[in-house]
Design brief:
339 residues, alpha+beta, Glutaredoxin, Serine Threonine Protein Phosphatase 5, Tetratricopeptide repeat, 3 domains, four-stranded mixed sheet, elongated
Amino acid sequence: MFGPQLFSAWLLSVGSAAALAEVAVCQGGACTRNGGPLLLDAAAVLLSKHTDQVKVMNFACSNECPAKGCVATPNRGVTPSRTLPTGDANSALSSASEIVHEAGFDLDESLKRAFLSNAAATALLEAGDAGEAEAQFSAALAEATDTSLAPAHAPIEGEPAVWEASVWRESLFDAELRCDDSATAFEFATCSGGELQLIDVLVDGVSLSGEWEGDLGEGADAGTFQLNMRDDGRGFLGVLTSESGGQTSWKGRRVATTRTRRTERPPWGVRWVYSAFQGRSRARLAIGDKEGAVEDAKAAVALCCRAPAAYSLLAEVAGACGEEGLKVEAEEELAWLRS
């Protein structure tokens, strides 16, 4: 057995620049059926305070395929793997505790409680007992530290606050609005189907104004417009005013002209906190606590702002709670992440 003292000696021998140790849990077919995901979650929770020293990871298949239990190792590539019991949350916690001990780390009782509460809450929510699930998710989150509640993803970058050469998905015709490279061009922007043109424009920082021509229906075919870009450069809001004085609200979302990977998974060290916020949001929605449901969905976004599922849940919860504006914002952020 690869004990704590030997593991610590190995760490010292390779120096401070050593790669992180890898606690690995098989997630192949047999191991998954035998409770491998529970063991992986338990190990991740117990080691979540040591993300600077160790990495908790899965691997596709160990090719051992046990009839019972799950294959795991306290340091992949260094210590041999073996099969550990994973029948339920308690056995998964016991096996994960063994791995953590062998990897040379102390066990934190608060994190043990967090794992068991989270596992119980997830099962209760799946069984339809939202009230008790909410209480168990709350118990898990009570064990979270300031560090585990801090934003885990880098903020989503804004776009240059420039109108020239920009492309937008606009709301009136659900078409692309393409802007010319130069604001001095008479016809500065045109919807992709030719439904609307912006002409003789004036750019003043994030504001764009001028005249429009097109067909908005009911005889409105020309007038003036005023648009204001969002501070992050990813959207605009404004109004089209017809020659008769009628006004039409208009908005748009910037279309990315270059492919950039913006999405990220929740880091393994905070995944349990992220899932607890999402689970409690669903539980609170089910018991009629709309304010709490929205608050928790927002907390999941704040924790992992590059995780698409966070925005999907926020949009779902906001829609169910009648907060249409928040729903639209979440959907727009999700669309931008995936663009």
